[in-house]
Amino acid sequence: MKKRIAYLFIIIGLLCAGCSRLGAQQGTVVPESSTVQDELSKVQQEGEKGKVEPLLEGYLSGLDVLEVPVREYGENTGHILLGEDLVVHILYPTGDIPALNHAIQEWVTDTVAYYQAEAEGSGGNEDAAELTVEYNSYLTGKDLVSVKLTGVFDQPYLAHPIDVAATFSADRKTGKVLKLTDLLLPGGEETLRDMVVDQAGIDPEAVDDGVLDLWILNKEGLEITLKRGDYLPMSDGSVTLFYPYEELKDFLTLSEDPVQDSPQIDPVQGEDPAGEDQKEPEPATPDMDKPMLALTFDDGPSKHTARLLDVFAKYGGKGTFFVVGNLIEGREETLQRMTAEGHEIGGHSWNHRQLTKLGKGELTDQIMNTRAKIYDATGVDTTIMRPPYGSYNDQVKTVSASLDVALINWSVDTLDWKHKDADAVYEAVMKEAKDGAIILCHDLYESTAAAMERAIPDLMAQGYQLVTVSELLEANGKTMEPGKVYTKK
Ligand code: ZN
């Protein structure tokens, strides 16, 4: 039986490609954070101001360890919560299979409710519990779609974060959500279970039906994941087993040859066309006699970002975009447009982890990988960052300072993540707008883009200059200092 299994991947730490970056910290390609820090302090000791280039160079030339998720199906959809007890950032796909959308959304709702109860009483900025989940999605062939959601739940008093995982698959032709047994010939379930038990070394006494629960199909084969602590000792981490189709042909039934080339399905990552008749970027210096504020947009780039850029292009003004590192690939043009049209770009971590829960090495990687990716796309080396959920502590400040990065939070939260309603977001912006404000929005939502189509011209009609965060602070005599947190002018 063992001979039939050609591949076995064991990923220690976390589950998936999208999350294994954290596990990969233990691997060999990862720059030791001490080395990174040493290199940096060496540069800084030499007194060459602003010279973090060697560090950035390192990340640009292959030290990059944080993986880019596979997203072959669905549009990024966000579920965000900034609560006292719990902060949530879940990215999940919405695609053209309603039953699959429904199943995933139901899981998101249930999972948030479950961890909300778990987090009860955590409370307060960096002490809030964190639920961060993202996804990989796969097209196998003509008709099959698989989605794997993975992430962590972390709480100050937990020794280790809890792995969170779910998988969904569906047949696009029938529109049905699939169980693995739908794809197995009689006897196949037992055969596959034996293979998994044997390969992973699970105690046969401990095996139950759940052992095959986490499965996805991709173009190469079937992946089974055993979540950390399930069936195997916690110290083994999450284990992923992979079986190429060739090894499964006697008991896996597929309506189409999964290895065939996938047809072109509706665009997943298509960029919206740039707006017409765009204005030249405005002069960089704001007029000190007029009020000014900074509109900031987190969690992109997304397919809605271009629409926002169109609004700025039409009415003038500038925004600041705090981008998530692993969302940049495939949307480099959106970032290039931002810089070309005078907007400011800052980092928002690589995969939206709450930075207060990470060690120095991970923290450095979160910041520097994102920065390298932004530099790669635009040639701009950004030195501002918005920490996910606005959460920071002394370590976040110290590491940011060592990386020459200033932290930008906000004075106004539009709650666009909560309302997802253009009218409510518009009202919030107009009501809270005042001179010197830094306003938090998210370019992940269509409702936010729609709200800005009204808010931006109306703010300008009220005399506000819409400036970038750097312009706002500079115009008000503030020099941005690395490691410091800014929330308004
Ligand atoms: Zn965010």
Describe the structure.
The protein has helices at residues 20-24, 33-45, 53-63, 98-119, 188-200, 245-248, 305-315, 332-340, 360-378, 394-402, 416-419, 422-432, 446-461, 469-475; strands at residues 75-82, 86-94, 129-139, 144-154, 162-171, 176-177, 215-217, 221-226, 239-244, 292-300, 319-323, 344-347, 384-385, 406-408, 412-413, 438-442, 465-466, 485-486. Mean pLDDT is 84; it is low at 1-37, 42-51 and 258-279. By secondary structure, it is α/β, with parallel strands linked by helices. It folds into two domains: 7-58 and 267-486, Glycoside hydrolase/deacetylase (TIM Barrel, Alpha-Beta Barrel), CATH 3.20.20.370; 75-248, Heat Shock Protein 90. 31% of the residues lie in helices and 20% in strands. Zinc ion (ZN) is lined by residues 89, 298-299, 348, 352, 388.
Question: Can you lay out the helices and strands and say which pair or pack?
Answer:
Layout: H1 20-24, H2 33-45, H3 53-63, E1 75-82, E2 86-94, H4 98-119, E3 129-139, E4 144-154, E5 162-171, E6 176-177, H5 188-200, E7 215-217, E8 221-226, E9 239-244, H6 245-248, E10 292-300, H7 305-315, E11 319-323, H8 332-340, E12 344-347, H9 360-378, E13 384-385, H10 394-402, E14 406-408, E15 412-413, H11 416-419, H12 422-432, E16 438-442, H13 446-461, E17 465-466, H14 469-475, E18 485-486
This protein binds zinc ion.
